[in-house]
Amino acid sequence: MELDIRLTSAGLANGNPVDPHVCPKPGSVVLSFVAGYGSLSTPTKAYSKDDITPDDAWQRMHAQFIRSLKSVLLHSDANITLIVYTNSFGMDIIQSHVIDKFHPRVQARLKYIPIVLDPNVVQVYITRMGFAWDPRWAISKIFAYDSLPPCVEWAIQIDTDVIMVGDIKNLWSLRHSFNSTQLLGGVPETAYSTRNMIKLQNKKIFVPSSIGFNSGVLIMNLKRMRDVNFGEDLLLEANKKLYPEWNNPNKIDPAKFHQLDQDVFNTVLTAYPSMRFQLPFRW
After folding, report:
1. Model pTM score
2. Are 101 and 10 in contact (CB under 8 A)?
3. What are the residues whose beta carbons fall under 8 Å from the beta carbon of 267, sequence distance 6 or more?
């Protein structure tokens, strides 16, 4: 099984040569955001580039994204390859209302690569795997390895509500600390303590382990994730290993996946702890 989600503004499609414009800027930190403008399953209404009002539902996310990106740039002089999962409207808004507003010296440090997701392709994935979800932007984290070309081997993924107060180069350098089996690094989720596990279970929110990761800050070895087809083959194997009572080998148990991408990551890493790299708590 292989998911073809390679639908981007750069024109990637299954079987086509890699567009060099999609590859990271040499020597740069590869930083990825999910910035959905409107619902993934419902197209955003038509806007002009200057037609933005505070009443739009995505305004909070837009403001968070700008603050998060600025915090990265403020605390580091690193060159950044900026990958953003969005829609065609968001792609233009980020260019005109974010990138183009930066000082030329800052622009020179950035390479902006928008990844435009097709909700129909996402829905095919959700249905095939058995998730009881509507298409959500956060799902793009699960198959980042498949939406980017092979020249992108590593990426930092952070949520738009994260404020960086240290040099992102220090976080980026931690990829060199991964051993030969680790493919995903994150910080433990404190909400998965024994006490909170009981609270989550009372709310019928299942979590696979009390040592789970928070998916708000991640380092991904995309090459290794491609090698094991992380979001499909490996996830199905992990689901079968953790929940042997589940009798459909071709779909996951939807009752075990309430928190979207975070549950997927934690299911795989609980089943295969050798693939897990723990980031220092400062991150």
Report:
1. 0.85
2. no
3. 208, 235, 238, 239, 242, 252, 256, 257
